[in-house]
Amino acid sequence: MKSHKIKNSKKLIYVGVLLITLMSCKSMKNSELGGFIGATGGAIIGGVIGNNTGGDTELGAVIGGIVGATVGSVIGNQMDQQAKKIEEELPTVVVERVEEDINIVFDEESGVYFKTNKHELNESSKETINKLAEVLKEYPNSDILIEGHTDNVGKEESNFVLSKYRAQSVKNYLVELGVEEQRFTVAYYGESQPKYTNDTSDGKSKNRRVEVTISPNEALRKQAVAQIKE
Which part of the chain is the OmpA-like domain (predicted)? Predict the structure, then answer.
């Protein structure tokens, strides 16, 4: 009975540590947050392995958490470096780190814009995307999601199609510049996901946007694991 109580206490302490860490995530650096995400995932996997092999579940969780934290930190650090490089090359573009990902917003203020009801890239937009392509090629171990959005001017069905063509234009040009096509996923939402009010001209211009999300891929995760084994 005593042994059972001790094991339960160990579980409660471990879960408590994870919860406290989760509540403090907002104050973490992105590389530290990556470490936490890795630790949580590693802990779960380690616990399952320990349980399935008849071993110590709690010990498996702790070991998995340590390994996961280290891997997550390595991934987070590389994504931090990539985000910093994008900010240096594209100072007018909004760049955010969200958990493991990098989110970029292209709108009329950041140098990527389209003529009314058109989806072809103009020369100014191409210059901006040229710089992004160089960074994406420098950091090849990532997946890239491109999402198209519009304001609410015109018919909803037309805006949906227009957002598709604009997102595909950005993707196709990046591929033309040498970024591997297999890295891309394209999504489009028309006017359904405004970030700003469509009641003002400024809000409309900001809603006419293409967002790019860069995420660590499986190759980067394997690279991180190999790095901690060295």
Answer: 101-218
